[in-house]
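Notebook entry, structure prediction.
Reason for the run: the old model in the group folder had no record of what sequence produced it. Starting over properly, with the input documented here first.
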Amino acid sequence: MMPIKQELRSGNSSFFENTGVEECKHLCSLNRSCSVASISKEKLCNHYMGSELGIWKTFQIVKGSQWFAKLKTNEYMVPFPTFHRGFYNTFFGNVQYLNGDSILTSPSYPLRTKLDYEIIWVVGFELGRFAKLVFTNISLPKDCNVTVSENINRFSGFDIDESFNNEVFVLETNKSLVSLTASCLQIWLTMKFRAIVTAEETPACLNLNYVGMKRDRIEECHESSMILSSRSYLNIDHYDSAEVFKIYAKDHQSIDIIFIDFYMLCYTNTRNLW
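New structure, fully documented this time:
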């Protein structure tokens, strides 16, 4: 599904002079019509009205400006994701905001599509509900990937590349806000993917920055109730590495562990676990 686009135009905006970054963000958060805000080095604050779906697209040249987006009406402002094309011009990618259980797909799915810009999906559930993603169909060439992040920074998180092609796997999180960024390094490359996004009541002890790395996994579990899942259970290649869950409890509290699904294979001639 291609995000609906609304181009940011000067006729669809209001501006304030001599404002700082925080003041510009605050003014937008108080303005129900403001969806996107920018602040320039000259302290010129621009407010742009957004579509009902909260999706933006622009091909404006941006010089020396910081951009912020309000994901929901009267909600906090967050830095707006940007990327560079060429050496000088900065453009915005498509952004789609999801706040309920959804099926998330690449544009033109189930057909493959070319991506000459980033597409970003922001999943934001109410507090106390945690995002879970089930990827059911991945087909990525080399130099295309999908990054799942605990914020809207595509430079950190769980990277999905061609090694996940034709795999079904799960990402459980302990976050109410996650983002997915699809991008290709070359515009002639084609890709597709599909994911089922649901809100869960129990958070998972899983750090998106480390669960996919080719090394031992160490998780720190601080919540009063959490789901602990091995990489093999999530169908994420564990590269014969160790997995450690450090479970913390408050003073005078005990720790109860209930095994819902447990399966282990051992070599017959060694004591090493497989």
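Summary: The two ends are 40 Å apart (CA to CA).
The old model has been moved to the deprecated folder.
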